[in-house]
Amino acid sequence: QVQLVESGGGLVQAGGSLRLSCAASGRTVSNYAMGWFRQAPGKEREFVAAISWSGRITDYADSVKGRFTISRDNAKNTVYLQMNSLKPEDTAVYYCAASRFTTTQTMGVPEKYGYWGQGTQVTVSF
């Protein structure tokens, strides 16, 4: 089993930055693709960013390209999401997820992820 714990969320003004962390435990996730998803009130969960097990391949939602960066440190069993130039529409609960079976073509598909964290709230004020 893989347990995922997100941290780093909070309240920030528009234009600010936050760095989310996702710490994995239970087993190594060095051979798992990792993703970040988010869910705003009244909306469906949506893909934000994903990274392959090696870190060589990344994918981003169009809405965050150029502003967010996903990275991983397999030695620390941790994945990060650096969020810059935050906008009020980025307000959501952000979830970390791990997938043993996704491909680079399906890294943005939430159904491919078998392990999920509890989420961390990100609120961006005007």
3D architecture notes:
- This protein has 126 residues and is mainly β.
- The protein is built from no helices and eleven strands.
- It has strands at 3-7, 10-13, 18-25, 33-39, 46-51, 58-60, 68-73, 78-83, 92-99, 115-116, 120-125.
- Strands 2, 4, 5, 6, 9, 10 and 11 form a seven-stranded mixed sheet that branches.
- Strand 5 and strand 6 form a beta hairpin.
- The protein is globular, with a radius of gyration of 13 Å.
- It starts with a strand and ends with a strand.
Brief descriptors of the model:
single chain; 126 residues; mainly beta; seven-stranded mixed β-sheet; four-stranded antiparallel β-sheet; 0% helix; 48% strand
Count of helical segments? 0
Residue share in β-strands? over 45%
How would a crystallographer describe the biggest sheet? 7 strands, mixed
Mean pLDDT: 96
Shape: globular
What level of helicity do the residues show?
Answer: under 10%
Elements, N to C (H/E): EEEEEEEEEEE
Task: Please report the total strand number as a whole number.
Answer: 11
**Class of secondary structure makeup:** mainly beta
Uncertain segments are none
State the gist of this model.
The chain is mainly β and 126 residues long. Helices cover 0% and strands 48% of the residues. Strands 2, 4, 5, 6, 9, 10 and 11 form a seven-stranded mixed β-sheet that branches. The chain has a four-stranded antiparallel β-sheet with strand order 1-3-8-7, with no helix packed on it.
